[in-house]
């Protein structure tokens, strides 16, 4: 069905817009770039698959958080965040959000 993500800046209590995200798929013992996109003004990204089908595999979302914080003149402990997850059933939708602050982050499987 698909893959989506969004970033919420928990310190500011608002979406993180214009953050670059790269999607990788793990196959043949290595990570392969599958797509990339930027978060929209609502911090959301729905276009990471770039026309590719979601298949059962391990994936990695790479969020470029350093430039986001640099643009706000805020120091961050995390120049980037990577979330690795497993797609077991590609017929389901996978929503993998990132709750972010300059000194911490968390994630969960959303709906």
Structure, explained:
- The structure is a single chain.
- The chain has one helix at 65-71, and strands spanning 2-9, 14-15, 20-27, 30-38, 44-45, 57-63, 81-87, 93-95, 98-101, 104-107.
- With 111 residues, the protein is mostly beta strands.
- It has a single domain, classed as Transthyretin/hydroxyisourate hydrolase domain (Immunoglobulin-like, Sandwich), CATH 2.60.40.
- The longest helix is centred in the middle third of the chain and has 7 residues, at 65-71.
- The mean pLDDT is 96.
Protein traits:
single chain; 111 residues; mainly beta; Immunoglobulin-like; 6-stranded mixed β-sheet; 4-stranded antiparallel β-sheet; 1 helix; 10 strands; globular
Roughly how many Å apart are the termini? 12 Å
Specify the biggest β-sheet. 6 strands, mixed
User: Would you tell me the structural class of the helices and strands?
Assistant: mainly beta
Strand content: over 45%
If you average the pLDDT, what whole number results? 96
Q: Output the radius of gyration.
A: 14 Å
- DSSP, total strands: 10
Count of spatially separate domains = 1
Name the CATH class. Answer: Mainly Beta
Number of helices: 1
What's the CATH architecture name? Sandwich
One letter per element, helices H and strands E, the order comes to EEEEEEHEEEE
Indicate the CATH topology.
Answer: Immunoglobulin-like
**Dominant shape:** globular
Into which percent range does the helicity of residues fall?
A: under 10%
């Amino acid at each position: 069905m698909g893959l989506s993500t969004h970033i919420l800046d928990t310190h500011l209590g608002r979406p993180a817009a214009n953050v670059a995200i790269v999607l990788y798929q793990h196959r043949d013992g290595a990570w392969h770039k599958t797509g990339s996109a930027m978060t929209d003004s609502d911090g959301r990204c729905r276009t990471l698959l770039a026309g590719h089908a979601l298949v059962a595999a391990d994936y990695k979302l790479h969020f470029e958080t350093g430039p986001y914080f640099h643009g706000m003149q805020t120091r961050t402990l995390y120049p980037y965040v990577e979330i690795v997850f497993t797609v077991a059933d590609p017929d389901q939708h996978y929503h993998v959000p990132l709750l972010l602050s300059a000194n911490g982050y968390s994630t969960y499987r959303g709906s």
